[in-house]
Structure formats: C-alpha cells, structure tokens
Design goal:
Distance between the termini: 24 Å
Strand order of the largest sheet: 1-2-3-5-4
Oligomer: single chain
Mean pLDDT: 90
Radius of gyration: 18 Å
Number of strands: 7
Helix content: 40-55%
Largest sheet: 5 strands, mixed
Order of helices and strands: HEEHEHEEHHEEHHHHHH
Bound molecules: zinc ion
Shape: globular
Length: about 250
C-alpha cells in the first residue's frame, strides 16, 4: 500500500483490513510510550520499530492540506504482527484500524498513511463508508519521499480503475455502492477501496478538497442514497450521476 516492500504482505492481508473504525478494544496497559511528537504519542514493544520521521512528515502534510489543528495527540499503537495486535486489542483479523473517538490507531505498519486520515477526517464529518474509505485512500501518499502518487495495494488508484473499466468489471453505477451497506456488500475489497479512492480523488481534483470537506460536514455514516444524492448536489453543485460521468470520462 505504501511501498513495494510492504505491498507484498497486503495482497494476503488486505481482505481483513477493511474493518477500519467501529471496533472496540481492550486497554493495552503494557504497551509503553516510546516516543512523542507535536502530533502523536507512539506506543510499541521494546525492539519494535516505528518510522516516526515518515509519519511526522505525513501528518504535517495531511493536516496542512486539511487546514486542521488536532485538539489532542494521536495515539499511534504499533504491533509487530497481527497476533501481537490481537494480544493487545483482541482484534487480529486486520492490519490496522482506527478509533477516531479516542484518537487512537492500531497498526502493524511502521508508519500509516490511511488510519490517521480517519482520525483527521472525523474532525470534519463522517459520511458513508464509500466516501470515508475513499477519502482515506485518496491521501495514501508519502510526503517524506516526495511521492504523491495515490496507491492502494500497490497500484495508482485511477490506473487500477481504468483497468477494471476496460475489463468490464468496474461496479457501476455508483448509486448502488455509495451507501455504507452498498459499499460493504462489494465482494472484492481491493477493488472497492480502489474504486472509492479513485472517485474521491477525482472529486478532489475536479471540484477541490474544500467541497469534499463540505460534503463530509453535511453527511452521516448511515445516510440513505436519497440523502447522499441531495448532500452531494449541495456540496458539489452537480448531481452524483454527472460527477460519475466525468470520472468515467477521465478514466478513458
Ligand atoms: Zn479505512
């Protein structure tokens, strides 16, 4: 997701990586704080590694883009493996998840450019999972290395969707998938995350990040399709179908 190195692991692991948010966890009393920055407190086991420089560069870049100041620090909890994460949190069927209500993320990656975005965007609003996950994916860049290509599971998201489109497998129309239930019903999680990421990235590129954030502000996780369509029109000045057409043209 973030590098060729860890991309190998994501192929097998991504299927379980979709439970971002909404999971309750036990306290992890023995995981100690081993570092602290202006935005983040880092918790990990002795001998484990966190790439704080890369994380700090990401946080600074994302928060600047979002024009956000954190009201409290992120709690970055790093585990050496899924089984270690399971020991501490009771959740071991995913690589990472976020708990925006407590500003806490749990991850097996040395740095994270997805779960923290859930923390940041929750300060603005919480739309359906399609838009919420698409937004987090649309931020999957690596500012420390000046790599702003948005990838999910190793592929640039527009390129991936262009391939799905040409292969006739891109799930359409979007109106079937923009609700939380519609999005979560898609069987191919890599495809659904790339699709949501590509569409939200398109919205940022075409209409601007401020309109995407206005949509977040107005939206709720369990909004119906009719509500989503109404809020979409208010935020973007065009109907969802019109934006979808523009997105598909951009993929040609
Ligand atoms: Zn997520």
């Amino acid at each position: 997701m973030r590098s060729k190195f860890i991309g190998l692991f994501l192929i097998v692991a991504v299927a379980g990586a979709l439970a971002c948010g909404g999971l309750s966890t036990e306290p992890a009393p023995t995981l100690s704080m081993n570092g602290e920055s202006a935005t983040t407190r880092y918790y990990f086991e002795p001998g484990d590694v966190v790439d704080t420089a890369r994380q700090e560069a990401f946080n600074a870049w994302a928060l600047t883009r979002l024009e956000l100041t954190l009201p409290r620090k992120i709690e970055f909890r790093k585990y050496s493996s899924r089984s270690a994460m399971s020991r501490y949190t009771g959740t071991g069927n995913t690589n990472a998840f976020a708990e925006p209500e407590t500003f806490r993320i749990h991850t097996i990656w040395p740095w994270d450019n997805h779960e923290v975005v859930h923390i940041f965007s929750a300060l603005v609003g919480r739309p359906s999972d399609f838009f919420n996950e698409g937004f987090a994916v649309s931020f999957q860049a690596d500012p420390m290395n000046r790599d702003f290509t948005v990838r999910f599971n190793g592929m640039q998201v527009h390129e991936a969707c262009r391939g799905y489109r040409h292969g006739g497998t891109l799930p359409l129309p979007l109106s079937r998938y923009v609700t939380t239930a519609g999005f979560r019903a898609l069987p191919d999680d890599v495809m659904s995350y790339r699709m949501a990421g590509s569409f939200v990235l398109f919205l940022e590129e075409r209409y601007g990040l401020s309109r995407v954030l206005a949509f977040f502000r107005a939206s709720g996780r369990d909004d119906s399709l009719a509500t989503i369509e109404s809020k979409f029109l208010q935020a973007f000045g065009e109907r969802l179908e019109e934006a979808e057409t523009g997105w598909l043209v951009s993929l040609q």
